[in-house]
Amino acid sequence: ARPVRLSVQLYAYGDGRHLLLSRDITSLEQAEAMRRDFVANVSHEIRTPLTVLVGFVETLQTLPLEEDERKRFLGLMAQQATRMQSLVQDLLTLSRLEGSPLPARGEWTPLAPLLRQCEDEARALSDMVTRKSGQAHVLEFPPASAVQIDVAGIPAELQSAFSNLISNAIRYTPAGGHIAVTWTSHADGSATFAVQDSGRGIDPEHVGRLTERFYRIDRSRSRETGGTGLGLAIVKHVLQRHGAQLHISSILGKGSTFSATFPAQRLRAHAIGFTGN
Ligand code: ADP
Question: What's the catalysed reaction (predicted)?
């Protein structure tokens, strides 16, 4: 049994009759609590970079700094501003996704070029993240010939969901680690997109909560690599709109796999000989 919050009203008619009205307001209260949490989280996420920015502005205004030092400060300020920009961007994306209905089918989106773009972005991100250590990630993508398929949906959304999962794999896997992106077709016509990493892995107690807005296991690690804590919430929404559920399996210290299976009716294989161009 779960605890329930009831709103109870008793009406007396004066002739001895009474009317008792009770309403289950559990979900109403839960929604209200979630909204409050969300506003508190957003405020906190915006306040932190803003405080840093204001601090730097004041320093620049009051202290006579050497040119080098001034440049370093401006660089740090740009970093904080970019962080706020990503946060606002993700918030807008999330509210747009939550507010708009499921797309009927979208358009047939060729998978090969979409994954190609994900791969280019992934290599650039991996280079950036691992520049200091000098040791790159091993990134594996399916060859174009294995993904001559169209997915019904909204291309930009699919691209952002896939890229998000891949960038998480890179950001939470130490340099030199292994990241494999796969596309597996099943006998019933459905197919699974998966991103497997050899990274830090996730404790089972966190797995179920990762798609909550702002839920992060290691706040500082997430911030360090430019995370907003909204990525997986967005991914979950996008996948749901495309008929797929996000599935997470992970072993702490060994790595994680994030996957989504698309139903057959959302997929269309290319005819033999069609190059997809
Ligand atoms: P963030 O912007 O913090 O990365 P996400 O919503 O994308 O936000 O992810 C939420 C949290 O899930 C991350 O902060 C991180 O703790 C965890 N996480 C996501 N992907 C991975 C992964 N591949 N390996 C380990 N932990 C991950």
Answer: ATP + protein L-histidine = ADP + protein N-phospho-L-histidine
If one counts every other C-beta atom within 10 angstroms of the C-beta of residue 184, the result is 13
267-269 sheet: strands from edge to edge: 107-110, 149-153, 267-269
| Interface ipTM | 0.98
Cα-to-centroid distance, 199 and ligand 1 (Å): 11
Q: What is the pLDDT of residues 182-215, one digit of tens each?
A: 999 999 999 999 999 999 999 999 999 999 999 9
Ligand 1 centre to CA of 173 (Å) is 11
Q: State the Cα–Cα distance between residues 221 and 270, nearest whole angstrom.
A: 41
Q: How far apart are CA 197 and CA 255, in angstroms?
A: 5
- Which residue has tokens 């706040």? 219
Atom of ligand 1 nearest to the CA of 216: 14
202 CB within 6 A, ligand 1: yes
HSE-CB for 210 with a 13 A CA cutoff: 24
pLDDT digits (tens, 9 = 90+) for 166-179: 999 999 999 899 99
Give the predicted TM-score (pTM) of the model.
0.85
